[in-house]
Amino acid sequence: MTHPQPIQVLLVEDNPADADLTRETLETSKLHIELSVARDGVEALDHLRRAPGYDGMPRPDLILLDLNLPRMDGRQLLAEIRADDALQSIPVVVLTSSEAERDIAESYRLGANCYVIKPVDLKAFQTIVEAVEGFWFTVVKLPP
C-alpha cells in the first residue's frame, strides 16, 4: 500500500531514549512516516489544536501515547482527545510500560484503540514499534 502523502505520527513521550528509539525504528520503514514528538499532554494538545507556535503542524494519522507524563498525563490527554469533535477520530495507541490492569481498563474506557506494553529490551521494543507500524499503516484503513 503506497501513501502519496507522508503518514503523520504524533508520539507523546517524555522519555528521550524511548522517543529516539521510536524515531530510529520508524526511519527504517519502507513507508514515508513523519514523526512529531510531544513531551507531555499539554504540548500534545497544543500540537493537536494548533495553538500558537504549532500553527502549521499537520493533523496526525495516528497518536502513540505514553500514559505516565508530566503536566497532563496520557489518561487526561486521551479523555481530551475523545471529547473533542475535531480530534476524536484520530486513532490512539497507548504505548506504555504500565502492565497494571486498571491502566489497561481505563485506557480502553477512555477510548484507546489499542494498548501496547513497552518491553524493556531494546530489540523487543523495536519489534513492538515495527508491529504497530505494520498493523496501523498496512492492514488498517485510517480515517481521512
TrEMBL record:
4-aspartylphosphate: residues bearing it: 66
PROSITE patterns from the UniProt entry: RESPONSE_REGULATORY
Residues of the Response regulatory domain: 8-133
Pfam families per UniProt: Response_reg
InterPro entries listed in its UniProt record: CheY-like_superfamily (IPR011006), Sig_transdc_resp-reg_receiver (IPR001789), TCS_response_regulator (IPR052893)
Any one GO BP annotation for this protein: phosphorelay signal transduction system
SUPFAM superfamilies named in the record: CheY-like (SSF52172)
Keywords assigned: Phosphoprotein
Entry-linked PANTHER family: RESPONSE REGULATOR RCP1, RESPONSE REGULATOR RCP1-RELATED
Protein name, UniProt field: Response regulator rcp1
Classification of source organism: Bacteria, Pseudomonadati, Pseudomonadota, Alphaproteobacteria, Hyphomicrobiales
